[in-house]
From TrEMBL:
Keywords: Cell cycle, Cell division, Mitosis, Repeat, WD repeat. Gene3D superfamilies: YVTN repeat-like/Quinoprotein amine dehydrogenase (2.130.10.10). InterPro entries: Cdc20/Fizzy, WD40/YVTN_repeat-like_dom_sf, WD40_CDC20-Fz, WD40_repeat_dom_sf, WD40_rpt. GO terms for molecular function: anaphase-promoting complex binding; ubiquitin ligase activator activity. This is WD40 repeat. It comes from Cinnamomum micranthum f. kanehirae. Residues 178-475 form the CDC20/Fizzy WD40 domain. It comes from the Eukaryota. Pfam families: WD40_CDC20-Fz. GO terms for biological process: anaphase-promoting complex-dependent catabolic process; cell division; positive regulation of anaphase-promoting complex-dependent catabolic process. The keyword Hydrolase does not apply. Belongs to the WD repeat CDC20/Fizzy family. Residues 102-125 are annotated as: Disordered. Residues 102-111 have a biased composition (Polar residues).
Length: 504
């Protein structure tokens, strides 16, 4: 006789079939059959089994076991085919390599090691690309400067060009640190500049010091008295021999650093301190707390040649473009002006080319992108704005705006790569390296205990000096250059030759 009981008959879903597990979750069927209870059972029928039903149930179980064996065979066959495809793809996969990452001499020095390294790279690259393809949603980090964009996986390109450099984020200390006692903590001054002869000038209260980056020597250039001091701005002439020094007494002194003597004093152009300076060949442009911008021809006795009137508060940022055609000025009135030199030459009191009022705080940080897009200007706002904005000077359009979350005190473009460095005067007091135009953050450089107010870039474009909290720090932030360009010959050595007659 058959023992009557309640049995469970299960209809297995096709896509969830597998071998009967030997795990503790399996159960012994009353009739000696093993049932895989670990699988989800979408349909369960509980009925007393008679002889016909028992036969049908056993037939169903036999069919299920046969189907499981077929599925396992198909799975094994599929895995073997997939392994074969992987081997073929590994042999033909293209390794997307950033230009200049591996030298040809290294590749030819040891063929065996190079072949092994390349095969490992191919395998890693294929596994990474396959992992990207398995995602349902793809994120594309656009960079319009990647070559052959239509044939390159953008996620892979971003990994190689950006993520591979994230080792910089772990850099917490500068390459070199120097003491800078009595460095004035004033956002509206410009007290640091690096010459084309690799000499760094820094103003510490009433004294200007020179530090030779080639040999590490330092010297004192000048000290002004309390009546004229403190020093409010410094700026090297294009030749790297002469330097302009703006003072709190509204005058500008011009010095020859080779002879260590003062050449002349520019006065009469301002009624307040001169906090910003910018050179354009023989033209020295000065910006003062009286909201005036003055062009001074250093070859002439009557040096004032043009004046720009537009700001209503102190001018704290001045920057000529590399072409010498446009001047950008930022002020404490939250305004950014673009001046055209050709308009100034025909009008002693020139009108602006563009007037931007997008910033909500003082505009001090200005940087022209002369390396790859001459009509691109970056500007940074103060603590009430915290934004970096990008402008097309030809059209007068704001291309992009990034909220950095902190006061922007200076901006520097890399001379060799499409990267932008910003310094900040609040929050973490850090330097931030950005990738342009995606504005992905590449690195955070934290080292200052107080706000970073002034930055300067070395002549080769690789090292950046930052000044704040009476400390001068040096960072090798931009790495090795991608393209070596011959240095332009300067014709500024004779700019000051005519002064000998005036000084006698």
């Amino acid at each position: 006789m058959f023992r009557s009981c309640l049995e469970k008959k299960t209809i297995f879903p096709r896509h969830r079939l597998s071998y009967l597990s030997r795990s503790p979750s399996r159960r012994l069927h009353p009739h000696g059959l093993h049932v895989a209870t670990s699988l989800p059972l979408p349909l369960t029928i509980a009925t007393p089994l008679s002889l016909p039903h028992r036969s049908a149930f056993l037939a169903r179980i036999a069919f299920s076991l046969f189907f499981l064996v077929r599925c396992e065979q198909e799975n094994r066959r599929g895995k073997e085919e997939e392994k074969g495809r992987e081997r073929r793809k590994r042999s033909s996969v293209r390794v997307l390599r950033h230009p200049g990452t591996v030298s040809s001499s290294f590749l030819s020095s040891n063929k065996t090691k190079t072949r092994t390294k390349q095969s490992r790279q191919n395998q890693n690259q294929y596994q990474y690309r396959r992992g990207l393809q398995d995602h349902t949603h793809h994120r594309h980090y656009g960079d319009r400067f990647i070559p052959n964009r239509s044939t390159i996986d953008l996620d892979m390109a971003r990994h190689l060009l950006v993520d591979a450099r994230k080792g910089k984020e772990n850099k917490k200390s500068p390459d070199r640190t120097l003491d800078a006692p009595e460095l004035i903590d004033d956002y509206y001054m410009n007290l640091l500049d690096w010459s084309t002869r690799n000499i760094l000038a820094i103003a510490l209260k009433n004294t200007v010091y020179l530090w030779n980056a080639s040999n590490g020597s330092s010297s004192e250039l000048l000290t002004v008295d309390e009546e004229n001091g403190p020093v409010t701005s410094v700026s090297w002439a294009p030749g790297g021999q002469h330097i302009a020094v703006g003072l709190n007494s509204s005058v500008v002194d011009l010095w020859d650093t080779t002879a260590n003597q003062k050449l002349t004093t520019l006065q009469g152009g301002h009624q307040g301190r001169v906090g910003s300076l910018s050179w354009n060949n023989h033209i020295l442009t000065t910006g003062g707390s009286d909201s005036m911008i003055v062009n001074n021809d250093v070859r002439m006795r009557s040096h004032t040649v043009q004046a720009y009137r537009g700001h209503c508060q102190e001018v704290c940022g001045l920057k000529w473009s590399n072409s010498g055609q446009h001047l950008a000025s930022g002020g404490n009135d939250n305004l950014l002006y673009i001046w055209d030199r050709s308009m100034a030459s025909s009008n002693p009191s020139a009108q602006w080319l563009h007037r931007f009022d997008h910033h909500k705080a003082a505009v001090k940080a200005l940087a022209w992108c002369d390396q790859f897009q001459s009509n691109l200007l970056a500007s940074g706002g103060g603590s009430g704005d915290r934004c970096i904005k990008f402008w097309n000077i030809n059209t007068g359009v704001c291309l992009n705006s990034i909220d950095t979350g902190s006061q922007v005190s200076s901006l520097l473009w890399s001379k060799n790569k499409r990267e932008l460095l910003s310094s900040h005067a609040t929050m973490q007091n850090q330097l931030i390296l950005w990738k342009y135009p995606s504005m992905d953050k590449i690195a955070d450089l934290n080292g200052n205990v107080s706000r970073v107010l002034f930055t300067a870039q070395s002549p080769n474009g690789l090292t950046v000096a930052s000044a704040g909290d009476e400390t001068l720090m040096f960072w090798n932030v931009f790495g090795s250059p991608e393209i070596t360009k011959p240095a332009k010959k300067t014709e500024n050595a004779a700019l000051f030759s005519s002064w000998t007659t005036h000084l006698r």
